[in-house]
Design brief:
heterodimer; A: mainly alpha; MetI-like fold; 11 helices; B: mainly alpha; two-stranded antiparallel ribbon; 76% helix; cell membrane (chain B); transmembrane helix (chain B); transport (chain B); MetI-like (chain B); MetI-like_sf (chain B)
Chain lengths: 273, 303
């Protein structure tokens, strides 16, 4: 039923995407502006990018952000995947309702509340604020996003594959790594990507939980944005957008080729029967 | 032996994430509630603890008697806070409505697109979701400010003579929220409409139903679960939004996230900001429960 993709449908899709992409496109274009005045076009230049790499504060913040992102995304993926397994595989255990509540609530929880409450936790147990507090905070909220992504893959998973492996004598752990993980891997990878970008992106929770020496890039950008729009910030933002876009495209291409291969293998298996 | 190992593994799969969320998500809320009942103090941390579990149960009962609800009384007495709550809810509600008005036609258009372009369209909706929130809000400053691109264009087109003041008003906040949260609205509606059986519409039209009636009688009701999920995904975080009202709104834009932030970072009043957080959470408990139920139901039906 695709024959009547009406004019109204096409127009709303085009307008919707124009709304979503124009602001970003303008920002990217103006990062190549020669002039310091961001609203006046004065010719093409990449000088603001050069300026960036000489800005030590910005470089330090970028390094902190990258480290927080890598560590928190990795732990969030492990915890989120186990949470997804717990939710889909074990439908009955004590406190399951509370557990699923704790998995879904952070998805919509206003960031100011999450940030404030985690900070108060760290202060009350006297945990020095810095790199690790930001990382712990990021693990906590991004593991819930990972859990939802992985869970949606797990519910459509054919469990008879696991049962077959266990009937043949594989332990639950072996079954997970040999059977389950390879099948849900695309979802786990997109979960990791999502956790990484959420961490890369976060301003509010990081501002609450961070301490001296652990200024993240969004915190740095925020403090400069408050002073006004500058071509340097446009340049930082463009680099971040480019990094994320490339990452998303690579994972989706990898997922697609994996999917194609899997389908071919399945067909071969059926044909050989 | 294997059964034992399997039992241990299944316990661990549940216990590890459970404990993590308990310690880093639930316990912190308890601490927020506790501090919201404490008196402010000029020290670090800037509050005197309301009670200490070290004194045992007897001490606890004693402490409960001394709990100070001053912070909450303070919140109800000062019109600033009440206005901030009301205006947050209003701004979030209006923005959610606009997001729905823009998001629904987009999602509908995507769902009816030919199979070959649909994955690309889906990816294009998800992509902005991956790019930084802060960056996307920042991008609008350059567009909306008085000498910004929107005004330049409108003046060049001859629509207006003097620049419109949009930045630092509530209008800019609406634009910011609609723009930032649009993918959250589009994705659930799209996934509801994508699964729809369009032969239903053909059947209705064959039976003489005009297209618009068919839309309201068939397509729209089928999209309702997606619409509810999308609205909750937009409304709940928008109520507590900080970045958008701070960067795009003006000094007159009152939103509770901003109030909490300034109580905390500028006034360094931790007990009051905790009380603000507790009340915000109480206001959002009902929509959050709705959201959680909708999520659980969606996962259940996917099985």
């Amino acid at each position: 039923m695709n024959s009547n993709w009406s004019r109204f449908n096409i127009a709303s899709v085009i307008l919707g995407f124009a709304f979503l992409y124009l602001p970003i496109a303008i920002l990217v274009i103006y990062s190549f502006n020669e002039s310091r005045l961001v609203t006046v076009w004065a010719g093409f230049s990449t000088k603001w990018y050069g300026e960036l790499f000489r800005n030590q504060g910005l470089m330090d913040a970028a390094w902190v952000t990258a480290r927080v992102g890598l560590v928190s995304a990795t732990f969030a993926t492990i915890l989120g995947t186990t949470a997804a397994l717990a939710l889909t595989r074990y439908t009955r255990f004590h406190g399951r309702i509370l557990f699923s509540g704790m998995v879904y609530a952070p998805l919509v929880m206003p960031e100011v509340i999450t940030g404030l409450s985690l900070l108060l936790l760290f202060v009350s147990i006297d945990f020095g604020r810095g790199f690790w507090t930001v990382t712990l905070a990021h693990i906590t909220f991004s593991m819930c996003f990972v859990a939802v992504v992985v869970q949606s893959r797990l519910v459509s998973f054919d469990r008879s594959l696991e049962e077959a492996a266990q009937d043949l004598g594989a332990s639950p752990v072996t079954t997970f790594f040999q059977i389950t993980l390879p099948v849900i891997l695309p979802a786990v990878i997109s979960g990791w990507m999502l956790a990484f970008t959420l961490s890369l992106d976060d301003l509010v929770i990081a501002s609450f939980t961070s301490g001296p020496g652990a200024t993240t890039l969004p915190m740095k950008i925020y403090s400069q944005v408050r002073l006004g729009v500058t071509p340097e910030i446009n340049a930082v933002c463009t680099l971040l957008i480019a990094a994320v876009t490339i990452g998303v495209i690579i994972t989706s291409v990898l997922n697609k080729s994996r999917e194609v291969r899997r389908r071919r293998d399945e067909q071969a298996a059926y044909a050989g029967r | 032996m294997r059964r034992f190992a399997s039992a241990v593994v299944s316990r661990l799969v549940i216990i590890v994430p459970y404990l993590w969320l308990f310690v880093f998500f639930l316990v912190p809320f308890g601490i927020v509630v506790k501090i919201s009942l404490s008196a402010p103090a000029m020290s670090m941390p800037p509050y005197t603890p309301a009670f200490d579990l070290a004194n045992g149960i007897g001490g606890l009962i004693d402490a409960v008697r001394q709990l100070s609800f001053d912070n909450y009384v303070w919140l109800t007495e000062d019109a600033l806070y009440i206005n901030a709550y009301v205006s947050s809810l209003t701004i979030a509600f209006i923005s959610t409505l606009f997001t729905l008005l823009i998001g629904f036609p987009l999602a509908y258009g995507m769902a009816r697109a030919p199979d070959s372009v649909r994955p690309t369209l889906l990816m294009l909706v998800i992509l902005p979701f991956w790019t930084s929130f802060l960056i996307r809000v920042y991008a609008w400053i350059g567009i909306l400010k008085p000498e910004g691109l929107l005004n330049q264009m409108l003046i060049w087109l001859g629509v207006i003579d003097t620049p419109l003041i949009i930045l630092n008003t509530n209008t800019a906040v609406y634009i910011g929220i609609v723009y930032s949260y649009l993918p959250f609205m589009v994705l659930p509606i799209y996934s509801a409409l994508e699964k729809m059986d369009y032969t239903l519409i053909e059947a209705a039209q064959d039976l003489g139903c005009p297209p618009i009636t068919a839309f309201w009688k068939i397509t729209f009701p089928l999209a309702i679960p997606g619409i509810i999920a999308g609205c909750l995904l937009v409304f709940i975080p928008a109520v507590g939004e900080f970045v958008i009202p701070d960067l795009l709104g003006g000094s007159k834009t009152l939103m509770i996230g901003k109030t909490l932030w300034s109580e905390f970072f500028n006034n360094r009043d931790w007990p009051v900001s905790s009380a603000v957080a507790v009340l915000l959470l109480l206001i959002l408990v009902v929509p959050i429960m709705f959201f959680q139920q909708a999520q659980a139901k969606a996962q259940e039906s996917g099985r």
